[in-house]
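Bumping with the actual sequence this time:
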Amino acid sequence: MNIYQFFTGFLLFLLPIISYSQDYSYELRFQVHEFDCNNGVLLVDIEVKSSTEGNDFLIGNQNYRFTYNQMALTNPSIKNELTLSSVLVGNGYTAFFNPHNLMGTMGNTVSYNVQLGNGTGYPISQEWVAVGRLQFEVVNLDAPFNLSWNTEGMSPSTAIASSSGSLHQGELKGYLTFEKRFELKLFLEGAYDVNTGKMTTFLNLAADDPLSRGVLPGQTPFASTTIATPAGQPFNQAPWDYNGTEGMDIIAYAPTVVDWVYVSILQGNPGAQVVAWRAAALLHSNGDVEFFDLPDFEQLPDEFYIKVDHRNHMAIMTPSKLLNTECNAILVDFTKVNSYTSGAQFGQKPLEPGVFAMFGGDSDKVSDFPFYSISGSDKIQWSIENGIFDAYRSNDFNLDGEVNSLDKLLWVENNGISSGVSQ
């Protein structure tokens, strides 16, 4: 499998100036707006600017003509009209542009057309102006895409004011490349606030929030009498026994951090899985999971499950296997899809229509065998810690820094829930 590095820029080459009757010159460039590898979609912007300092001009009708490699890309279409769209009125100019079109596009040559229906035209300076956004289907990552302006023959690229100026050209050549992505999103029931659609951050430290406790690992607590939680991720104990060094140097967290989660990539079928990769990561209030390091995609199995565990919420797993593709991207939103289930067992808890969260109340992870569950053993653990405040405790089910009756109420609501996910 090839590992590519994300490419967002462009290659700019100055070509010989083509003489036109009006005394101005302009430059064109392609700019990659987005490459969605998983869905095979490339979005490219066409941009124009004046190439001569102090020589602004009014742009009118435009025909941007270029070629592309059909072995890599296909089906060009207009995704969005950008700056040069509709009615534009300003100091000393008016421009009424008709809808953009691709009339004249044939084979591997695109003809992007902008017509000035009325007015003086739009001023072009030495700042890049985005004309429009094109969409291509990506059919082959191993072929160069090679977007190249057409400056020869009867139909060169033109940007017309009252007549044509001279052209400088910016080409975009090479192979489509992309960054490795591992993006997870999930909610914890205990910390979820239905009023905001986000999770609370009471375990974290915020100077302007009197409810914040500052008891996340490595933090200096809000109260001087509170014992600080040792630095480092919290999964270095049974049943995880994970000795990763994540968080050892953290003394201050981003204000949106809720808590830690434990993420595993599993190979094999449910009930007979082996760990291919694992890590501790930070969970933010909007549900985003922040990793310290990403897996080596070349070393991952061709198919795998993603499993997420938390100190006191029932573990979840992707409902089906994911494929390890050449896109090097793992994108899972657990807030919108239920976790893996088997038979009458549960996955996640629907908090409101279309919103799922991990069940709260599962603190006795050692007793979760063979499946994760919320049971009497969790209540026993809660009873031991009940009354402890300003502390980072597993039985603080609502993650407010205290173990009290509110946590028990959450356990009572979920008592008897069993998962289809196994240890």
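The tokens above came from a reply further down the thread. The longest helix spans residues 376-385.
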